[in-house]
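Researcher: Re-running this chain for the archive, since the previous output was lost when a drive failed. Same request as before.
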Amino acid sequence: MKRRKRITAAVAAVINGMAAAGRKKSFALLACGLFCLVFAMPASAQCTAVNKAFQSGEHVMYDLYFNWKFIWKKVGLASLTTNASTYQSKPAFRFNLLSVGSKQTDFFFKMRDTLTCYVSDKLEPLYFRKAAEEGKRYTVDEAWFSYNDGVSYVKQRRTWRDGRVQEMEYNDSRCIFDMLSILAQARSYNPNDYKIGDKIHFPMATGRKVEQQTLIYRGKENVEANDDVTYRCLVFSFVEYNDKGKEKEVITFFISDDDNHLPIRLDMYLNFGSAKAFLKSVRGNRYPLTSVITD
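Model: Regenerated structure tokens:
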């Protein structure tokens, strides 16, 4: 009984830490949004690409864990689904990403995040929405994308529970992505030309602002997922820089080294501890999982 109380107290501390840090980097944002950042994107505003990685009907599940000191605790699930659809009467793909905290974590900090995006059949970002219920806070972030004369435009809006609204517009000569549309394109790019240490830069719309992001390619590593399978993975680091230019690793991505380019594991380094997301299951993948390591 005492041990159970200690574990419960530890989980409470983790969730309380998440709540305190949620305004800046919520776990849902990290685990369910940023895992879309996989490979390098084109430098120009030509935002079209050929889909070489996914098909309609793909469904991926993840187990989410928190660590506080020496305790790892499962705190929820995340799912990503891909379906053929239409947007403004034109062919499109729709992505839905849902993260849900467990009933135990709901007692300390309720987490319900739903992300939706539409991309054209040529993988251009069209629309993004993120509805986030985190603790007592509920916000809806939206982004609308358009293109003219080689320039990408995005209009963003955040709406709070009490009806307050914040809007902003931004344009860039490069293609602007959101947390899900970047996955649609990135999975189709060939990483074979990358060298260890290569840095990848691109702008990303969060629904409230546009941030410049940096990824670093680290090489390859074998990783065991929660489906009891070991995968050969490409390893990328999502990093930030402080005012003095010092690099800080935020997330390490382990991506299947096959034509599907599925995120297999994510390691997240937070101010109050660390977190991980492990692949639990996948169905409807377009290609065989040739990255699976067999004895």
